[in-house]
Structures are given as C-alpha cells and as structure tokens.
Design a protein that fits this description.
By secondary structure, this protein is mainly beta. The protein has a single domain (19-166), classed as Porin (Beta Barrel). Helix content is 12%, strand content 42%. It has helices at 88-91, 147-151, 155-166; strands at 19-24, 32-36, 39-46, 52-58, 61-68, 73-78, 81-82, 86-87, 101-105, 108-115, 118-123, 128-134, 142-146.
Length: 180
C-alpha cells in the first residue's frame, strides 16, 4: 500500500508540483484577505456586534459561507448550490477515534488530517493528498491546493476549513483538542 506524501520543502516551485498557493493577509484569519499570485481571491470578515464570520469570493463575486460562532452553525453556498444551515461539527465531523475530521463534497468522502504545522485533506479512496493548510513559523497561514482539487471545486471548501481550523475558536464537542 502506497502512502500519500506531502513535500513542502521541495526545490520545485508550487506550479511545477501542480499546486496553487493561497496566502492569508494576516495571522488573524477572521479578519483577512486571501491572495493568490498577488490578486485578492477571498475576504474574511467578522462582525463586531454579531459573532458572525462571512467568507466572500471576489471572482466571481459571491458569499461562500457564513459562520455563526455563537450557535456554532455554518451556512455554505458553493457553486450554484446552498446547503442547509447546519452545525459546524456536522460539516466537519470528528471521526470516532477523535484524530481526524471528515468532509464530504460531490459525493466523495475526504479526511482532514492534522499535521505538525497544519492539516492535509486526503482522499482515502484514491490515496491522494488534495490540499494542505500550513501555519509555518514566520509565515502567514496558507492554503496549498492541488490543481486537480481546484478543478473539481474544492477551493472554497479548503478556504472554509482553513478559517475554521485556524480561527482558534472551538466548534465541536472535543474541548481538549480545539479544532482537530
């Protein structure tokens, strides 16, 4: 059985590895802009009166999701469809062993696996890494997503996951491990 691998220290550029990089403008991801190749792609804003975070995409202009931190619910609109508002822990359910979080998109099940400096999105069926969220010391948070993942529509979901994981806000029932 081959194991999936992630090499972020490779001498090849991201483009040569078939990866697109998206970097947050601030370590405080709840108030930031997400850039790709120096162009603004997403805006993340948190209301000061209401404890609600909105993620908006610039191209095409649309609201990707709204997160209500008080009720721990998320309203996601990806592509032309909207999913019903649901609890964040249902959107990214904790596995029974409490080590990873599941995620479903387009009828495919994925797993968010915690790593030393972030998280990797893994497709167990195809044995492939699909994306990474990194918080490397001295660098702004980034989403590294494989081009094939962008083509199948996972970009919005990866940005949402980055905001959830890096928000430093609890969203599930596991109080010992904030956002595994």
């Amino acid at each position: 059985m081959m194991m999936a691998h992630t090499h972020r220290t490779s001498s090849r550029t991201a483009a040569q590895r078939g990866v697109q990089l998206f970097e947050f403008s601030s370590a405080h991801v709840l108030e930031s802009v997400v850039f790709s190749a120096r162009s603004r792609r997403f805006e993340v804003c948190t209301g000061h009166r209401r404890n609600v975070t909105t993620i908006r995409c610039f191209t095409p202009e649309r609201t990707v999701c709204t997160i209500d931190w008080d009720t721990k619910t998320i309203d996601v609109g990806i592509g032309d469809g909207r999913t019903p508002t649901r609890r964040i822990e249902e959107y990214l359910p904790l596995n029974p062993r409490r080590k990873t979080r599941g995620f479903s998109f387009g009828g495919v099940d994925y797993t968010w696996i915690p790593k030393k400096n972030g998280f990797s999105l893994y497709n167990k069926k195809t044995n492939q890494d699909m994306a990474n969220i990194w918080t490397l010391p001295g660098h702004l948070p980034r989403v590294e997503i494989y081009c094939q993942s962008v083509h199948i529509g996972l970009l919005d979901s990866c940005v949402i996951a980055a905001v959830l994981f890096l928000s430093k806000r609890p969203f599930g029932i596991d109080k010992d491990n904030r956002n595994v």
